[in-house]
Design brief:
This protein is α/β, with parallel strands linked by helices and 209 residues long. The protein is 33% helix and 24% strand.
Length: 209
């Protein structure tokens, strides 16, 4: 199974400013590109900070004169790496309460930006693509199950699993792996099993046999 990475979903064409970019120039960039923050890079393209609308308004309130990006920016910056899974990136966003993450390579160069709207693309995957991944990657390659023994239906990201597996203990494994597939919103369990190899306390109430 392959989870989508930050590199798969990030926006690679990044608007950025230099350390010496002035207050007014930064304000123009934010307005022109319709963004609320802009990364600040050095002469090598390495990320050194971020200037947001809030940074501009805060400095403006101090009544300061002309300022440059290096004076206005917030730093250090919470960043992501291209090889991160999108799940890891989403958790970092949630933990730090940010709406976007600059993406930097191993040398600190800015290579993209990942936003919450980019993450939403996961849930816009075609149902057919989700179904194929579950059948081929989860059932056939990962679990070595016969796809013919199970039925996988996907509607608007909701997966319904039916059919019979050999052992009861396989059911939670199948469910967990299907839930982890990118784009899956929920999984409906209609699975049965041939042999109950779980302790009584672990048995699912009402599960078909």
């Amino acid at each position: 199974m392959r989870h989508r990475s930050v590199a798969d979903l990030m926006t690679p064409a990044v608007v950025s400013v230099q350390r010496g970019t002035t207050f007014k120039e930064i304000a123009r960039v934010l307005d022109e590109f319709g963004v609320t923050a802009v990364p600040v890079v050095d002469e090598n393209g390495c990320l050194v900070g971020v200037v947001s609308e809030a940074d501009l308004l805060r400095r403006r309130g101090y009544g300061s004169g002309t300022n440059t990006a290096v004076e206005l920016m917030s730093h250090p910056v919470i960043t992501a790496s291209p090889e991160w899974s999108v799940v890891r990136a989403a958790r970092v966003m949630e933990k730090h309460k940010v709406k976007r993450l600059p993406v930097v390579d191993s040398e600190g160069r800015l290579v993209g930006v990942l936003s919450r709207s980019d993450l939403l693309q996961l849930f816009l995957r075609r149902d057919r693509a989700i179904q194929e991944e579950i059948l081929e990657d989860v059932l056939t390659h990962t679990l070595r199950l016969s796809p013919s023994s199970l039925t996988v239906e996907v509607a608007d990201g909701v997966v319904t699993l039916s059919g019979t597996v050999s052992r009861h203990s396989l059911v939670p494994v199948v469910l967990r792996l299907c839930r982890s597939v990118d784009g899956v919103i929920d999984v409906t369990d209609r699975l049965g099993y041939e042999r109950d190899d779980l302790p009584v306390d672990d048995a699912r109430p009402g599960a078909p046999r």
